Amino acid sequence: MRKISKIGVLTSGGDAPGMNPCIRAVVRTALYNGLEVVGIRQGYKGLIDNDMYEMDRRSVSNILNLGGTILKTARCLPFKTDEGMEQAYQHAKARGIDALVVIGGDGTFTGALRFSRKYPDIAVMGVPGTIDNDLCGSTYTLGFDTATNTVIQAIDKIRDTADAHDRLFFIEVMGRDSGAIALRAGISCGAEAILLPERATAIDDLIANLKEGHMNKKSSSIVIVAEGDKNGGVYGVAKAVQEEVKNYDIKVTILGHLQRGGAPSSFDRILGSRLGFAAVNALIAGESQKMVGLQANHILMTDLEAALNHHEFKLEEDLLQMMDILSI
Ligand code: ATP
């Protein structure tokens, strides 16, 4: 069986609340098991630039409550090239790293899988860390819960002003090609409509719904538009609706990067801790090219390749049905 002695840990892609609790769990679980840990700064960039440092228990003190990531993150294009990967490998070997924990989203895992296939003597274990919640093999990804709660708080505030003025608000939320945040936030805030990339909404149907809502004496309406929605973006949708719905004063809000920040929720702190703990234990058990994830409240492993299979990823059918029925 593969035996490891030094783990490198990195965060890559978009930052997500919960990454810090995960880093802490990786470091302390590894040290507890007699392994050494190297922190790699700015994702794969730190491997290529040899920007790394030895971590001890104290280097992860007081970080459970911090959003972002103490290791920093980056989008690193050179890692996609053979030369970049070779440089990363040489630096990792020179440090004595024989296993990597990579915390990130699908791009991060794509890179990890390529790297590990090219250089199988370094084991890799993925931890799903992205607010987008778009990976197969984990019902929840790190940061999704916190980001959704942040969105809910913001929309509740917008609802107050919408109600006071009889306004119709179009609110764009993050998620890249995933409508997961939009769907959950929409149900939680009683949005009148939720536009998702996973399910096409005809603008005519949206307009008909909003007119019906007005006739039913709704004093305000909130329409959530996921950033990946295919109707031409939140401004395009708002403009098309304004031409047909004259009774409302229409406003557009893009929540933007505030969705990424803030202290991780209890859920993300526990999830980060569980996943970090499990990732190190899986590496110690000789595993590689896998992702640890949460399934039915158990931590299970999925092949990285399967985790990347977007076609298998689906939003929950009952939530989709509910969103139509409850918002009428
Ligand atoms: P998020 O879902 O939050 O955006 P992500 O992990 O999907 O996170 P990306 O920017 O897509 O974020 O990927 C992170 C990094 O992974 C890239 O900057 C790059 O260094 C590496 N990466 C992505 N795709 C590949 C690839 N095909 N080959 C090698 N490395 C890759």
TrEMBL record:
<comment type="similarity">
    <text>Belongs to the phosphofructokinase type A (PFKA) family. ATP-dependent PFK group I subfamily. Prokaryotic clade 'B1' sub-subfamily.</text>
</comment>
<dbReference type="GO" id="GO:0042802">
    <property type="term" value="F:identical protein binding"/>
</dbReference>
<dbReference type="GO" id="GO:0016208">
    <property type="term" value="F:AMP binding"/>
</dbReference>
<dbReference type="GO" id="GO:0030388">
    <property type="term" value="P:fructose 1,6-bisphosphate metabolic process"/>
</dbReference>
<comment type="subunit">
    <text>Homotetramer.</text>
</comment>
<feature type="active site" description="Proton acceptor">
    <location>
        <position position="132"/>
    </location>
</feature>
<dbReference type="InterPro" id="IPR000023">
    <property type="entry name" value="Phosphofructokinase_dom"/>
</dbReference>
<feature type="binding site">
    <location>
        <begin position="24"/>
        <end position="28"/>
    </location>
    <ligand>
        <name>ADP</name>
    </ligand>
</feature>
<feature type="binding site">
    <location>
        <position position="14"/>
    </location>
    <ligand>
        <name>ATP</name>
    </ligand>
</feature>
<keyword id="KW-0324">Glycolysis</keyword>
<dbReference type="InterPro" id="IPR035966">
    <property type="entry name" value="PKF_sf"/>
</dbReference>
<dbReference type="Pfam" id="PF00365">
    <property type="entry name" value="PFK"/>
</dbReference>
<comment type="pathway">
    <text>Carbohydrate degradation; glycolysis; D-glyceraldehyde 3-phosphate and glycerone phosphate from D-glucose: step 3/4.</text>
</comment>
<dbReference type="InterPro" id="IPR012828">
    <property type="entry name" value="PFKA_ATP_prok"/>
</dbReference>
<keyword id="KW-0418">Kinase</keyword>
<feature type="binding site" description="in other chain">
    <location>
        <begin position="257"/>
        <end position="260"/>
    </location>
    <ligand>
        <name>substrate</name>
    </ligand>
</feature>
<feature type="binding site" description="in other chain">
    <location>
        <begin position="190"/>
        <end position="192"/>
    </location>
    <ligand>
        <name>ADP</name>
    </ligand>
</feature>
<protein>
    <recommendedName>
        <fullName>ATP-dependent 6-phosphofructokinase</fullName>
        <ecNumber>2.7.1.11</ecNumber>
    </recommendedName>
</protein>
<keyword id="KW-0479">Metal-binding</keyword>
<feature type="binding site">
    <location>
        <position position="167"/>
    </location>
    <ligand>
        <name>substrate</name>
    </ligand>
</feature>
<feature type="binding site">
    <location>
        <begin position="75"/>
        <end position="76"/>
    </location>
    <ligand>
        <name>ATP</name>
    </ligand>
</feature>
<dbReference type="GO" id="GO:0005524">
    <property type="term" value="F:ATP binding"/>
</dbReference>
<feature type="binding site">
    <location>
        <position position="106"/>
    </location>
    <ligand>
        <name>Mg(2+)</name>
    </ligand>
</feature>
<comment type="function">
    <text>Catalyzes the phosphorylation of D-fructose 6-phosphate to fructose 1,6-bisphosphate by ATP, the first committing step of glycolysis.</text>
</comment>
<dbReference type="GO" id="GO:0061621">
    <property type="term" value="P:canonical glycolysis"/>
</dbReference>
<dbReference type="InterPro" id="IPR012003">
    <property type="entry name" value="ATP_PFK_prok-type"/>
</dbReference>
<dbReference type="InterPro" id="IPR015912">
    <property type="entry name" value="Phosphofructokinase_CS"/>
</dbReference>
<feature type="binding site">
    <location>
        <position position="251"/>
    </location>
    <ligand>
        <name>substrate</name>
    </ligand>
</feature>
<dbReference type="GO" id="GO:0005945">
    <property type="term" value="C:6-phosphofructokinase complex"/>
</dbReference>
<keyword id="KW-0460">Magnesium</keyword>
<dbReference type="GO" id="GO:0070095">
    <property type="term" value="F:fructose-6-phosphate binding"/>
</dbReference>
<feature type="binding site" description="in other chain">
    <location>
        <begin position="174"/>
        <end position="176"/>
    </location>
    <ligand>
        <name>substrate</name>
    </ligand>
</feature>
<dbReference type="GO" id="GO:0048029">
    <property type="term" value="F:monosaccharide binding"/>
</dbReference>
<dbReference type="GO" id="GO:0003872">
    <property type="term" value="F:6-phosphofructokinase activity"/>
</dbReference>
<feature type="binding site" description="in other chain">
    <location>
        <position position="227"/>
    </location>
    <ligand>
        <name>substrate</name>
    </ligand>
</feature>
<feature type="binding site" description="in other chain">
    <location>
        <position position="159"/>
    </location>
    <ligand>
        <name>ADP</name>
    </ligand>
</feature>
<feature type="binding site" description="in other chain">
    <location>
        <begin position="130"/>
        <end position="132"/>
    </location>
    <ligand>
        <name>substrate</name>
    </ligand>
</feature>
<dbReference type="GO" id="GO:0046872">
    <property type="term" value="F:metal ion binding"/>
</dbReference>
<feature type="domain" description="Phosphofructokinase">
    <location>
        <begin position="6"/>
        <end position="283"/>
    </location>
</feature>
<keyword id="KW-0067">ATP-binding</keyword>
<dbReference type="InterPro" id="IPR022953">
    <property type="entry name" value="ATP_PFK"/>
</dbReference>
<keyword id="KW-0808">Transferase</keyword>
